[in-house]
Amino acid sequence: MTKKAYKLLVADIDGTLLNKDGAISTEDRDAIAKVGESGIPVALSTGRVVLASLGIIKQLALDGYHMFFDGALVINPEKGEEVYVKPISKELVRQTVEFAHLNGINLDFYSATHFFIEQETWGSNIRRDFYRTPPTVVDMTKLWQTERIIKATLTVKSPEEKAKANDFYQHFKDRLNFSLTKTPAYPEVDFINVLAPDVSKGEALAALASFLGIPLTEVMAIGDGSNDVSLLSKAGLAVAMGSAPDELKAVADYVTLDVEHNGAAEAIRKFLL
């Protein structure tokens, strides 16, 4: 773990770079900029969709390739060049819509470019206002026929919503992949990503590193959530934020400060600058 031994920096967004106010600190932003100036590419790895990440990418003045949808899509957003993608099968999209309708579950879907809902909810308001992702209202029963769906989401906070989400999980856990994401701005809300089997941030990192010709041993990755376990497990240098759960800290080589204390910048200075 020596400085300048790494050729790619990968960072999660929410809880790693983005704090409870939905902002990136000047210290973290400057550290990311200095990494880029040193010639090391920076890639974001997030559960967010592309649209919800463009403002962050612009704010950090990043180009190149990034990992979205918890690893289901690796793309250069500026060029629209896909490196890796694992959509949910059309038949599974059909089945999830059917189950959601039968059980009164609010389920949203995403293609690479659109956010689909059946009706406006408090969850879609968060997507619009915080994530800057405007929804498209559609007939979900026909969605599987017309769109390439990369991710579905269950956005829950009440005990009743969480119970229904668990019913959904129990029904599809052997056919789909599930990951829980959080953001400091909405600590009471669980954002449950529903993805194709075998999708993970780790698999996306492996695909991106191979595409760039960079050994995984020369990748530094920073994350804060349970969905970052696979990411940190693949990276040569794994950094967990101070607020990370124990399962993530267990696979980390180094535990930095939390996002409110510029943990990403602290780790970047220690290992890259």
Can you offer a commentary on this structure?
The chain has 273 residues and is an alpha/beta fold. The chain has two domains: 8-86 and 199-271, Rossmann fold; 90-195, Hypothetical Protein, Haloacid Dehalogenase-like Hydrolase, Chain: A, domain 2. It has helices at 26-37, 54-59, 90-103, 122-129, 143-146, 159-172, 201-212, 229-234, 246-249, 263-271, and strands spanning 8-11, 42-44, 66-68, 73-76, 81-85, 108-110, 115-117, 135-137, 151-156, 177-181, 190-195, 219-223, 237-240, 254-255. The strands form three sheets. The chain has a six-stranded mixed β-sheet, sandwiched between helices. A five-stranded parallel β-sheet has the order 2-1-12-13-14. Helix 1 (26-37) links the parallel strand 1 and strand 2 (42-44). Helix 1 (26-37) runs parallel beside helix 10 (263-271). The mean pLDDT is 96.
Q: Would you give the CATH topology of the largest domain?
A: Rossmann fold
Helix content: 25-40%
Radius of gyration: 18 Å
Gross CATH architecture of the largest domain: 3-Layer(aba) Sandwich
Counting structural domains, the number is 2
Q: Helical region count?
A: 10
User: What's the quaternary structure here?
Assistant: single chain
Task: Give the overall shape, derived from the CA principal axes.
Answer: globular
Order of helices and strands: EHEHEEEHEEHEHEHEEHEHEHEH
Per CATH, the superfamily of the largest domain is: HAD superfamily/HAD-like
Q: What's the CATH C level of the largest domain?
A: Alpha Beta
Please state how the strands of the largest beta sheet are arranged side by side: 8-7-6-9-11-10
| Mean residue pLDDT | 96
Q: Compute the separation of the termini in Å.
A: 13 Å
Annotation, overall tally of beta strands: 14
